[in-house]
Structures are given as structure tokens and as C-alpha cells.
Design goal:
A alpha/beta (about 525), B mainly alpha (about 325), C mainly alpha (about 325), B: two-stranded antiparallel ribbon, about 75% helix, C: mainly alpha, two-stranded antiparallel sheet
């Protein structure tokens, strides 16, 4: 472990623009941040990396004053500060460029750049002249192709991001934090963004750059700090490290590929998809899953993985292609159709899509089959409780009782309720989208084991995940998606981190070599 | 992007296109069917149209800023009635007896003040309790209406002041007094919403409340100011209308909130807040009044007006959704 | 034994607050005037609340499913006028089912617009308020409607009759409340309504056909409105064509007072009945202690604000809102 490594070009000791010392933040049942310490030097691009759930977003909320840390301190320049709000963070020179843009799209660029600080004239009038002049001056520095009067809603996402950056430049920014800034940018737009970052750098601003994309990290950053499970795992100098070392720090172990070998016999093909397309979301996707098999879908966010699941589940209308369940072609136009064909979906947004948080555990679990659980015209509550008890025991769901509101359970137990909801209907196919998002580490392993044991019981399972160790760990085969296309399906013998990363980055060389 | 701008343009201009269609339709249909031989687009007819638009129009202007802010106000009809009673009753108060016609401006000020206070109370409750404005103003709609009835039971409150009636019935530069007030309110509120910091912040709050809060905009005071403005405008509407009529029934102003919301929605303001234009609401008000007059002109029963307006409102909502739909591959939830 | 903490007390108050308030009211008014709890007074109050109450039952379904229904007032005028008109044309036996069918058609239209076309329920029902009002005025030719032979019809039994000493409107209200209460709490349809209102997306992801559920709620609402129209018409055997005007918001007030959230997913028929009774008894109690009839509106306003405030304050754990 490298701890505090020497800074990138430290000829003379420079005062960091921002320093974090031993930040601890706990939530009921979770230690989200556990002693995080690192610093950002002036003119440095400092990458912050870690898997989903490693604590990056919690750390950013602490920096932005949305959460108060339980322990530790934030030092800006040489002064310790207590962040109380995003506004105050901005006043101290810490500015955020959010992944989800926080702009008022109906207003003009200038009004967004100076949101909350519009220059005033007499009678509370807006001083438009000053506003436009100041904004255009900043826009000039960013060399963008739109002007201060443009309505933000008429701009592309990349240009909207520039508006956020322009907002950062209205104050004397000491540190600018970019959260996944390239997630929705084209290559040309990325170049512009990197120019802006280099420009900020040359003005002595410190930059924290949060991203999953190794290529970008190695291109533009000076140092890399890594978080894992809320803990600080060290800071590496970008010039002196490589992708393997960073990955290992993030994941914490050499990948154990041995465990994904199937130990049971596969049955017949349960679900087969031929040439499935849905508009511009994904095109010509074909695959099959056998009983007892886990097919993993891996790819970047936006590659079309979730959209395939939603189409199979009747939430989107396919524009072409066929779906076969147990050899028979099926037409699916609604989730009810999908459920009747034995297809079930554990969605990625557990709280938004998977559960009615204000309803009890039992009511959530029996929701899809409530019409079938009738005694005369009434719901057969006895049968409901029997189902709940059975799957509470089978899945080891920890809850005081069936009356407990689902909203009060932990993430892992909530996920088990969603899984139990479908298992109790004995489906043919179980699609699990991001099975462990937002779930603490201990429960992750439990969910992984559960998926493997369900496969052993003969379910055909599709797992979608953004976490490479997860797909490698639970899948018998892995389908790599890139930009709406299924690039290649790997068996467990063929797969390696390298060829998987290449496949999801749209590089075909390896595929050609392997073919 | 071009198509996006086109649809934005279409949506913004839609209400004026609709008014144009109404004018053409009623003029032509009027030629064929009209019982009177006057043309529909007769000058006097149009001047009257503006005047008759004023009471609901002034309130609808206020409703627009409330809805841009992301709220709603169901109590405007009751505020309207209460302000009218204050106006007419205060002129008969013994204290003002010696003032002669000077009692008029005092009565006006008292009525407007009553409106501002009632609006402020709504705004304050929304701000401090965090209860949804729909519920708060649903409650005060009942409460304020109760005050109206407590004031004078079920009897009308009347006071005719001929100086006032002459003023209200007068025409200035060809336009009626009420029309001037409607135009004035439209201009002032347009100015506030488009040229002042308060107005721009109100847009920002309705558009993206979280972003506004993070930028340090204080949501509460802005909401309260807007509730005071709509209270003022509801009272102004009463002042303009009852100066002329001189008599208020305790049920007056009932359903005005719903008419005002209808005009605002026709003008293209969204219930979710953040977008909307004062000028388009003005168009919405004119469109409704035009429909009222037009149907009368072609000899349709006045009763059918409600039917037609209701159906148009739903049709507008449907068209707006169709314009915003993304395509067949959209998620069906 | 669970310890009584400030938080748990807050939760208890929030959950049962409306019931406690109701009991306190009853005790207070009884102390002020012993006639208050006399059977004939109680009966009178429930009887006069029956029309509002029946409508509130249906609106409860709509609100729990996460929508609004502002059209019930003008729809009630429609039902009343239609049944009175058809009474003389077809006779009561045919008039009643015909009126129910027509009212249910209106409910189906709203359900289609809100459920299947996914249009905003506030604006749709606002538009329908206006449209149905226009329809009623056109239907009645702008005139009030009266039954020709008021003495010789059995039609008055719904509004004026008694069974075993209990007025028929009360029996209808209580019977319908019990029936709909069971539908909501014990049947799959009821369960789906809570799911759709609590989290419509998750309900869809669980295979529930949300449009059907929403349509069902508006049909229930229309059925209740038709029943209310029947009671109204039968009580007076004649009616103005604006008889239901303004009732939509009073009905909604009763439902909210009962604790249903406008966001959907919460509320019960029992609580709505309590909300209706509170409104009725406040009106009656204030009259008995010598206050003006219209003072009830002001009191209702204060109670609605306090009830909702208590509810959300307990949920967020703070009395004042965090709005800056």
C-alpha cells in the first residue's frame, strides 16, 4: 500500500488546495466512509476511483456539505472548514460539476451561470447588461459555440455541462470536482472537455476527477486515489502505475475465476432471443440461456443492457426480432404477458421499480400473483403468509415479521424480497439487473451465492452488472455489450479481464483473433 | 435540435393560432348562422370582449406566477369575494362618512390590502408547514368563504357609489377601465416575471427546485411573495368588477379558481412549474372569452360553452403529450 | 413493553390523530350541549352527511390510486337531473339503472383519459367538471328539474324513507361504506390500488395493469356519484341543475381530513368516514353551541391544516418545514 505518495512533480513543497483527513461517515448499519484521507495539489488532476458503492458519492456529499462527517476534517488551503451546504462549499472555492446536471433548463445560459447571484439594478431589476457581459467573458474563456442568451434546454448535453463549468468559474475556484463528466459525451466533445480541464489546471486549480474509464484516467490525471468499501486504499502516481495495479486496489484481490465454473448439468434452452432490436437502443441481439445457466451481461452504462431486459419483460416494444421461451415463440407486450410466459425481472432501481416501500413485506412479495391467491372474492391472507414464511426461510430474509414495511429493511433484505416475489411464482427465466447495487459488502456475497444456488436448482438466469468481478463471479457465460450491440459471448474458459474490457470498449481486434 | 425548437415555437404560438382560428371560424359561421346582422369582429364587440375578460383575466395572470413557481391556489375565488365585501362595506363605514368621494381610494386600498393579507397567510402556511399548496389553499378556500358568509350571512352586500360607477364604466382612449386594469396587470406581472430578480428566481424554483436551493435561492420568501401577488390580483379583480356592479353575493367568485387554471393551462403553462408565460395566459383568457361570445354569436346555447371549453382543455393536454412522446421504444410505465 | 418516546408518541398521534381529534370534538360538544349526543341528533347529522359521504367513498379510491377527481360535483348534478328527467319519461324502475349507466359512462371516459392515455388527472377532471356542467345545462335546457307527481311515486323512498327506524340514506351510506371498505382492504383489486398509488412504476414492474386499476377507481367513483345523485333527487324530488357545484372540493377536504395522502398509496374507507363525520358534527356542534352555520367552514379550514401538518411533521420529525 502506498499511502501518501510523493506528489507528481514535487520539486518544492506546495500547499494542497484541498486536504481530507480521516473522514468517517456512518449510516445505520453501514460504515459508508471509514477514515478517508488524501489531498489535491494546485494544478493537479487527481482521479478518485472505486467500484459502485465504494463510497465516492458519499464522500462528495460530505465535501459538498450535504452530509456532515462523524469524524475527520476538511482543509481548504490551510484552514479547516465545516461544510454546511453546497452554497457554502462553493463560497470556499469547492465547486462540483455533477453527473446529473443541476440546471434550470427553461432559463438562459447566463441566468444559470449566475443562478442565485443575478446582478441587480434599482427596483429589484436584473442587470442584464452586466449579466450577459460577465457570462460571455467566461464563455469566451471556455471557447464554446453558444452565447449567454441561449436557452439551456436548447443545448446539447455536452454544452449543458459547459454551462455548469462556466458556473464554477464565477467564483475563485480552488478545487473543481468532476463526477463522471464523460458519461454522455461523444469523442469530439471529450476533447473539448479535456482542453478545459487542462486550462483550469494551468490556472492552478486543483481537480478531482471521478471516473470508471481507465483510458481517460491514464490520459489526463496526475495521481489516482482509490476507495474500496468506504476505506481509503492508497494514492498512486499515474505515471508510475498501470491498470492492473489500480484494478487490484479497487477490487482488493486477484480475481478468483475458478468459482464461476458450472458444477451442475445444464438443461434445455429455456429462453432464446433472435435478432432482437429496439429502435436505436440496441440492435440485432441474439443469445440463448439454458436451464441451470447464468448468462452475464457486461458493458458500460448506456450500452443497452437494461433496455434488453426491459424489452424481454414487455416494458418496451421491440422493433424487430423474435423471443422463444422453451422452444415456442412468444409475443410480449406487457409485463403481465412476460410474467405469464415465466419471465421475471429484478430491476436495477430497487426502490423506484422493484418495491412499493409503503407496503408490507408480505404484500410486496405476493403482489404479482395477488389475483391467483383468492378465497372467493377475497385475498387469501393465510396463503399469502405461507408464501412469505417459505421464502423468508429459503432466502434468509431478516425482518421482524410480514407486517414490517419494506422501506424499513436493509438493501440486501429488500433485494431478497424482490427475488422472493418472483421465485414464489416459479418462473422459467429470472433476469437480475444490477443485483447488488447499493448493497453492503457482506450481503453482496450472500446475493451472489443465492444466484448460483438458484442456477443449480434449474432456473435460467440473466445477470446484468456494471461490476466486472460480479459478472465474472456469478456467470457461466458472459455477453459483452457495446453501444447497443452484443459484441461477443464468452464462455468461462475464454474470458479474461483484458478481452472483456476490449469487447465492451468496442475494440474488435481480439474478437477477430479469437475467431 | 431544430425539431425541438420548432415544436417549442409551435407550442408558444399555439394559443394565438387558436385565437385566430376562433376569429375566422366565428366570422364565417356568423355570416351563415348569425341571428343578428352585426359582424362578429365588430369593434364594439371586441372592446366588450376585453372588458368581460378582465375579472377572470386578472386572476389568471396571478395564477400563472403561482403555477410557474410550482404551486397552485384554489382560494382565489374566496379572496375575490372577501375583497369585494371589504370594498363595498368599507365605503359605508361611519369613519369615512365625512370624506365624501375620498372614501373611494381608501376603500380600494383596504380591499387590496385584504387580498394581500389573505394571500400572505396562504404563502406563510405553505412556507412554514411544508404542506402542499393544493391542500393549504383548498382549506383556505373553505375558510375564506366562511368569512365571507360570516360577514353578512347569505345576504348580498351592496353599495353603489355613482362616482365610482362612472369611473368604472368610462372609456379611456377607447378602452374600458376594466380593460386598462387587465392590460396594466398583465404588463406589471410580465415585467416582474421577466425583468426582476424575484421573477427569474421564481422560474428557477419551479424549473429545478434542488438546483435553486443549492444556488442559495430562498424558496420560501419567493413563494410567499407570489402568494401575496395573487392575493393582490384577486382583490384587484374584485375592485375593478364591483366598482361597477356595486353588489356582491356571498357565492360570487365560486369556481373562479378553476376558470383561471383553465386559462393558464390553455396558455401552455405546465402544472409541474418552471415554464409558462404571462402573455400566453393573456391569450388563454382571450381565447375562452372569445369562445363564449362566439358560441353566443352563432346562436349556440350559452350552456354549451362549458362543454366546449372542458373538451378543449382535455384536447390540449392530449396534444401536448403527443408532441412530447419519444417514440415506440419508450419505456411503458 | 415498548418505551414511549417522543418519536413513537409522534407516530401514534400522526396515525390515530384524526380519531383522537374526533373523540375530543365529540366530548367537547357533548359537555357544551347535552342534546349533541341524543340519538335523533346523531341520526340527523349522519343523514345530512350521507350525500357528501357517499361521494367521499368513491373519491377515496381515486385518491389512494394517486389521482384526483374534481368532477364529482358536476357529475352529481348530472345524475340528479338525469334521474329526475327520466323518472317522468321512463318511470323510476327504468330511470335509476339508466342514470347509473350514463354516470358510469362518464366515469369510464375519465378513467380512459387518465388511465390509458396517462393524462394529468387534475386537468382532465377539471375539464370534465366544466364539460359535464355544460352537458347538464344543455340536457336540462338551463331549467330546474321537477318530478310532476311528487305524491304518487315510490321514488322518494331513497331520500326520505326509513327502515326499522333508520333513515334509508344512512343505510345506503353505511352499507356502501362497509362494502367498499371490504373491497379496498380485502380484495386483490384493493391491494392493487394501494400498489398503484404507492409506487405506480413498481406496480407496473410487478405485472399489474395500471390503466385498468385507474379505470376501476374512476368507475367506483362514478358509481358513488350516481348513488349520491339518486339520494339528492329522491330527497327533494326536484333540483337545481347546479346542485353539486362546489362539492368536489368539500368532498376532497373530507378525504384529506381522513388522512389520505394526495400522493397516493395511503388512506382507508374507515378514516374517510371519520373525516365526513367530523365535518358533519362540527357543523352541527357549532350550531348547537350557538355559532353561525358558516363558522364551520373556518373551523374546517383550521382542522384540515392542523391535521395534515401533524401528519407530515411526524413523518419528518420536525414541526417546521425545511424550506429555506
Amino acid at each position: 500500500m502506498t499511502g501518501q505518495s510523493p506528489s507528481a512533480g514535487a520539486d518544492a513543497p506546495r500547499t494542497p488546495v484541498l486536504r481530507l483527513e480521516g473522514i468517517v461517515k456512518t449510516f445505520p448499519g453501514v460504515r459508508a466512509l471509514d477514515g478517508v484521507s488524501f489531498d489535491v495539489l494546485p494544478g493537479e488532476v487527481h482521479a478518485l476511483m472505486g467500484e459502485n458503492g465504494a463510497g465516492k458519492s458519499t464522500l462528495m456529499k460530505v465535501l459538498g456539505g450535504i452530509y456532515q462527517p462523524d469524524e475527520g476534517q476538511i482543509i481548504v488551503g490551510e484552514k479547516p472548514v465545516v461544510m454546511t451546504s453546497p452554497l457554502q462549499a462553493k463560497a470556499t472555492g469547492i465547486v462540483f460539476i455533477h453527473q446529473e446536471l443541476s440546471l434550470a433548463t427553461e432559463l438562459s445560459v447566463a441566468e444559470n451561470v449566475y443562478l442565485g447571484e443575478l446582478p441587480k439594478r434599482s427596483f429589484g431589476r436584473v442587470d442584464w447588461k452586466t449579466l450577459y457581459a460577465k457570462t460571455n467573458e467566461i464563455l469566451g474563456r471556455l471557447k464554446v459555440g453558444f452565447d449567454a442568451k441561449t436557452r439551456v434546454g436548447d443545448l446539447s448535453i455536452a454544452n449543458q455541462q459547459m454551462v455548469e463549468i462556466a458556473r464554477a468559474l464565477t467564483v475563485d475556484a480552488k478545487a473543481v470536482i468532476f463526477d463522471e463528466p464523460t458519461a454522455s459525451l461523444t469523442d469530439a466533445e471529450k476533447v473539448v472537455l479535456f482542453d478545459v480541464i487542462a486550462d483550469l489546471q494551468s490556472q492552478g486549480v486543483g481537480i478531482i476527477y471521478i471516473s470508471h474509464r481507465m483510458e481517460e484516467i491514464f490520459k489526463i490525471t496526475d495521481r489516482i486515489s482509490v476507495l474500496r468499501d468506504g476505506q481509503y486504499r492508497g494514492t498512486l502516481s499515474t505515471a508510475e502505475t498501470n491498470e492492473d495495479e489500480v484494478t487490484q486496489l479497487m477490487i482488493g484481490r486477484k480475481l478468483d475465476l475458478s468459482r464461476n465454473v458450472s458444477h451442475h448439468d445444464l438443461g434445455d434452452v429455456t429462453i432464446e432471443v433472435k435478432g432482437l432490436s429496439c429502435g436505436n437502443l440496441f440492435q440485432d441481439v441474439s443469445f440463448q440461456v439454458r436451464a441451470g445457466e447464468v448468462l452475464g451481461f457486461y458493458g458500460l452504462v448506456g450500452a443497452g443492457r437494461t433496455e434488453i431486459a426491459e424489452t424481454l419483460f414487455g416494458l418496451r416494444e421491440p422493433s424487430a426480432g423474435q423471443i422463444f421461451v422453451q422452444g415456442e415463440e412468444v409475443q410480449i407486450h406487457s409485463p403481465a404477458d412476460a410474467i405469464s410466459k415465466g419471465i421475471s425481472l429484478v430491476p436495477e432501481d430497487r426502490k423506484g421499480q422493484g418495491l412499493v416501500l409503503g407496503m408490507s413485506c408480505r404484500d410486496n412479495m405476493t403482489l404479482p400473483q395477488i389475483e391467483d391467491l383468492k378465497a372467493g372474492p377475497f385475498v387469501a391472507e393465510g396463503a399469502e403468509i405461507a408464501i412469505f414464511d417459505k421464502y423468508r426461510d429459503n432466502l434468509d430474509i431478516r425482518t421482524p415479521g410480514w407486517r414490517q414495511l419494506v422501506g424499513n429493511l436493509s438493501g440486501g433484505n429488500q433485494q431478497k424480497i424482490v427475488i422472493g416475489k418472483w421465485l414464489s411464482m416459479h418462473p422459467n427465466v429470472l433476469i437480475v439487473d444490477e443485483p447488488t447495487r447499493g448493497i453492503d459488502v457482506g450481503s453482496k456475497a450472500v446475493i451472489h451465492d443465492l444466484i448460483r444456488s438458484l442456477a443449480a436448482q434449474g432456473y435460467a438466469i440473466i445477470v446484468i452488472s456494471s461490476e466486472m468481478p460480479e459478472v465474472l463471479h456469478v456467470s457461466d457465460r458472459i455477453a459483452a455489450m457495446y453501444s447497443g450491440k452484443l459484441m461477443r459471448t464468452f464462455t468461462s474458459d475464454e474470458v479474461s479481464e483484458d478481452n472483456l474490457i476490449q469487447a465492451i470498449s468496442g475494440l474488435k481486434s481480439d474478437q477477430a483473433a479469437a475467431a | 435540435m431544430a425539431s425541438g425548437m420548432l415544436s417549442t415555437f409551435l407550442k408558444r404560438g399555439a394559443i394565438w393560432g387558436f385565437i385566430l382560428v376562433e376569429l375566422i371560424f366565428f366570422s364565417i359561421a356568423g355570416e351563415q348562422l348569425s341571428l343578428s346582422d352585426k359582424a362578429f369582429m365588430d369593434l364594439d364587440n371586441m372592446l366588450l370582449l376585453f372588458k368581460q375578460s378582465a375579472p377572470i383575466g386578472i386572476i389568471a395572470i396571478g395564477m400563472t406566477i403561482i403555477m410557474i413557481n410550482g404551486n397552485i391556489d384554489l382560494s382565489v375565488g374566496a379572496i375575490f369575494a372577501l375583497a369585494a365585501i371589504v370594498l363595498l362595506d368599507s365605503m359605508t363605514w361611519p369613519i369615512f362618512a365625512g370624506l365624501g368621494d375620498w372614501a373611494i381610494p381608501l376603500a380600494w386600498i383596504l380591499a387590496l390590502l385584504a387580498g394581500v393579507l389573505l394571500g400572505a397567510l396562504n404563502g406563510f402556511i405553505v412556507w412554514k408547514t411544508g404542506i402542499d399548496a393544493f391542500i393549504v389553499t383548498l382549506g383556505s378556500m373553505l375558510g375564506y368563504r366562511g368569512l365571507v358568509f360570516i360577514y353578512n350571512g347569505e345576504n348580498p352586500t351592496s353599495h353603489l357609489n355613482w362616482t365610482l360607477v362612472d369611473f368604472a364604466e368610462a372609456q379611456w382612449l377607447g378602452l374600458h377601465t376594466a380593460t386598462w386594469f387587465l392590460l396594466g396587470a398583465t404588463f406589471v406581472i410580465w415585467f416582474i416575471m421577466n425583468r426582476t430578480v424575484h421573477g427569474r428566481n421564481a422560474y428557477a424554483i419551479g424549473n429545478n427546485r434542488e438546483a435553486a436551493v443549492n444556488a442559495g435561492i430562498r424558496v420560501g420568501p419567493h413563494m410567499m411573495i407570489n402568494f401575496m401577488l395573487i392575493g393582490f390580483l384577486a382583490a384587484l379583480s374584485a375592485v375593478v368588477f364591483y366598482s361597477e356592479s356595486g353588489s356582491v353575493n356571498p357565492n360570487d367568485g365560486e369556481l373562479y379558481e378553476l376558470w383561471a387554471i383553465t386559462a393558464v393551462v390553455l396558455g401552455g403553462t405546465k402544472l409541474t412549474g418552471g415554464s409558462g408565460s404571462i402573455i400566453s395566459t393573456f391569450g388563454g383568457v382571450l381565447a375562452i372569452q372569445l369562445l363564449r361570445k362566439g358560441l353566443g354569436h352563432i346562436g349556440a346555447d350559452t350552456e354549451t360553452v362549458n362543454l366546449v371549453i372542458g373538451l378543449i382543455l382535455i384536447a390540449v393536454l392530449f396534444l401536448d403529450r403527443q408532441l412530447n412522446i419519444k417514440g415506440k421504444e419508450e419505456l411503458r410505465v | 413493553m415498548p418505551k414511549i418516546t417522543k418519536a413513537s408518541l409522534g407516530r401514534f398521534l400522526a396515525k390515530q390523530g384524526i380519531l383522537i381529534a374526533f373523540i375530543l370534538f365529540m366530548v367537547g360538544f357533548t359537555l357544551a350541549n347535552e342534546r349533541f349526543l341524543a340519538p335523533e341528533n346523531v341520526m340527523g347529522v349522519i343523514r345530512s352527511s350521507a350525500i357528501l359521504g357517499v361521494m367521499a367513498l368513491g373519491v377515496t379510491f381515486v385518491v389512494i390510486s394517486g389521482n384526483l377527481d374534481l368532477s364529482v360535483g358536476s357529475m352529481m348534478s348530472f345524475s340528479t337531473i338525469v334521474v329526475l328527467d327520466l323518472h317522468d319519461k321512463l318511470g323510476p324502475t327504468l330511470a335509476i339503472p339508466a342514470m347509473f349507466a350514463m354516470t358510469l359512462c362518464l366515469g369510464a371516459i375519465i378513467g380512459f383519459l387518465v388511465g390509458y392515455l396517462k393524462l394529468n388527472s387534475l386537468i382532465v377532471t377539471l375539464g370534465m367538471l366544466s364539460a359535464i356542467h355544460g352537458l347538464t345545462l344543455t340536457y336540462s335546457g338551463g331549467k330546474n328539474m321537477d318530478i310532476a307527481d311528487k305524491e304518487g311515486t315510490w321514488f322518494s323512498v331513497f331520500g326520505q324513507g326509513e327502515l326499522l327506524g333508520v333513515p334509508v340514506p344512512i343505510l345506503l351510506f353505511v352499507g356502501l361504506a362497509a362494502f367498499l371498505g371490504i373491497v379496498l382492504s380485502k380484495t386483490p383489486f384493493g391491494r392493487k390500488i394501494y400498489a398503484v398509488g404507492g409506487n405506480g412504476v413498481a406496480a407496473t414492474f410487478s405485472g399489474i395493469r395500471r390503466p385498468r386499476v385507474v379505470l376501476g377507481c374512476y368507475l367506483v367513483s362514478a358509481f358513488c356519484v350516481a348513488t349520491a345523485g339518486l339520494l339528492q333527487a329522491s330527497r327533494s324530488l326536484g333540483s337545481q341543475n347546479t346542485v353539486g357545484q362546489g362539492l368536489e372540493l368539500e368532498v376532497l377536504a373530507a378525504v384529506i381530513l381522513g388522512g389520505a395522502s394526495l400522493l397516493g398509496g395511503s388512506g382507508t374507507i374507515f378514516k374517510t368516514v371519520i373525516g365526513v363525520l367530523i365535518l358533519g358534527f362540527i357543523q352541527n356542534g357549532l350550531l348547537l353551541v350557538g355559532l353561525q352555520f358558516y363558522a364551520q367552514y373556518v373551523v374546517t379550514w383550521v382542522i384540515i391544516i392542523l391535521a395534515v401538518w401533524l401528519d407530515i411533521a411526524a413523518k419528518r420529525g420536525k414541526l417546521l418545514s425545511p424550506i429555506a
